[in-house]
Structure formats: C-alpha cells, structure tokens
Design goal:
α1 (3-15) packs antiparallel against α2 and α6 runs parallel beside α11 (236-252). This protein has two domains: 16-109, no CATH class; 122-252, Rossmann fold. The chain is built from eleven helices and eleven strands. Strands 8-7-9-10-11 form a five-stranded parallel sheet. A four-stranded mixed sheet has the order 3-4-6-5, with helices on both faces. It has helices spanning 3-15, 20-27, 44-48, 61-73, 85-94, 132-144, 160-164, 167-172, 186-191, 214-221, 236-252, and strands at residues 32-34, 39-41, 54-55, 78-81, 99-101, 106-109, 122-126, 149-152, 175-180, 198-202, 229-230. Helices cover 41% and strands 16% of the residues. It is α/β, with parallel strands linked by helices.
C-alpha cells in the first residue's frame, strides 16, 4: 500500500465507484500485519516511498518466506538481502517469481512499477574485483529503489590513472558510492574530485591487518576529503538507501 494506491482508493470512494466497506477491507492491511514471529510494516511505503525490506540473515527460510509472501500478497515489490543460496532455493520454490543473485545474496520480486528516482545516475565506484559482492548488493538495491546506476569497476588507488580516466562519470553523477577494502583510500580520492555527495563503503577484503574491514572503516572515517560519509563494513544496502534518501529529498524540496 503506497500513497498512489491510497489516493486512488479515496478518490474512488469520493466518486462513488468504491464502496466504503470495500475501502475498509483494502485499508485493513494498514499499518502492519502480525505474523507471530514478525510484524510486517505495510505502512513503510507510505512513509518512505518503498516497501519494507527483508533481512534474510538470522531468519529461517520459513520466516523469510512468510514475510515475503505477506508483502507480495498486497502487491508490493519484495527485496530480500543477505539471503544465502540454501535459503534462497527453498524460498524460490515456494515463491517462484523471486529472482536471486548469488553474488549479491539478494532476491527480488517486482510486481509494481518502479518509479525513476532522480534525474542523474548514481556512480557506483569499486576499488577492486574482490569488492563485487558489496557492489552487487548496492546495485540491485538501487535498481529496486528506481535509481539508475553507472558502474566504475576496479579503479583502486594502486593505479590512480584508472579512476582519473573515469572522472567525467563520477563528476556528472547525482551521488557517488565508493566501495573499497584494504586501506580504504579510494573515497578520499573521489571526494577530492567531485562536488556532490560521496558515500563510502568499507569492505572486509584485505590481508590480516585489514582486520575484516576495520582498517578501511577507520581510514574512511578519517578521510581528509571534507564531507565524505561512511557506511558500515560491507553495507552496500545501506549505501544504496542513503543515496536514495539524498535523491528523494532533492526531488521533494
């Protein structure tokens, strides 16, 4: 249930084409549904423009399926993150419309049109090929949010000429998301090249002293490029939502 659907329903009641009882039944999905193990927030799309997202890690396949089915039942699009292949197989068997990306560990079900968000794409910049799982999680999330993506892959600071050759791509982007592991230096470089928002995502890629992404996280938080904002380690999903919030606020205000 989103704003357009509620407006259509209320307009139908006002014009007499929809009965009050029928409208009450349609609105009974608001604001949430109790499943016992989960409380599915059907009001999320009304408040934020996109439906609730299912975090698959830590849930059983049956729980993921139950939440996804409840979202799908009301015609909403479904996005499931951090879904491993074993759970994905079980969920897709019961909900065949789902499309799964093993690299991103993301499953999607598109039932409603996704409205384009923003007039310019997000530049999704990655330091190395090893960062691809986080990049793919971010890219698929952005797609489900209606955000166009331009990828700039494998342009880490070990060869700065590579990112400089793509300077026009990052300069014209509405927002730049930079994904990097190791020492996490790439967001500082990008932050010094562009005027728009830069969202940094540290990854857990790296040798022992990288400490599972903590070195990259600390480096990004300590960036000398003013105004670079940082997400949690491996959180491509969070970076995508942050970019969408920026784009949505521009459209609104």
């Amino acid at each position: 249930m989103n704003r357009d659907r509620v407006r259509e329903l209320l307009e139908g009641v006002r014009q007499g084409g929809v009965g009050v009882d029928d409208a009450m039944v349609a609105l009974s999905d608001l604001p949430y549904a109790e499943l016992g193990y989960a409380t599915v927030d059907h009001h999320r799309a009304m408040r934020q423009g996109v439906p609730e997202v299912v975090f698959g890690e830590g849930k059983s396949a049956a729980q993921v399926l139950g939440i996804a089915r409840e979202l799908a039942r009301t015609g909403q699009n479904v996005l499931i993150t951090r879904l491993d292949e074993n759970k994905a197989t079980a969920v897709i068997e019961a909900l065949p419309g789902l499309v799964y990306s093993p690299m991103a560990r993301v499953a999607t079900l598109e039932q409603s049109p996704i409205e384009p968000l923003g007039s310019r794409p997000v530049a999704l910049v990655s330091a190395g090929t090893g960062d691809s799982p986080v990049v793919e999680e971010c890219a698929l999330t952005l797609r489900m949010l209606g955000v166009a993506v331009e990828r700039v892959c494998d342009v880490g600071v070990a060869g700065l000429h590579r990112v400089l050759a793509k300077r026009d791509v990052v300069a014209r982007a509405g927002v730049v998301v930079v994904v990097a592991g190791m020492e996490g230096a790439l967001p500082s470089v990008i932050g010094g090249l562009v005027a728009g928002p830069v969202i940094a995502v540290p990854t857990s890629v790296g040798y022992g002293a990288s400490l599972g992404g903590l070195a990259a996280l600390a480096g990004m938080l300590s960036s000398c490029a003013s105004g670079v904002v940082v997400c949690n380690v491996d959180n491509g999903f969070g970076a995508a939502f942050a970019a969408a919030r920026i784009l949505r606020s521009r459209d609104k205000y």
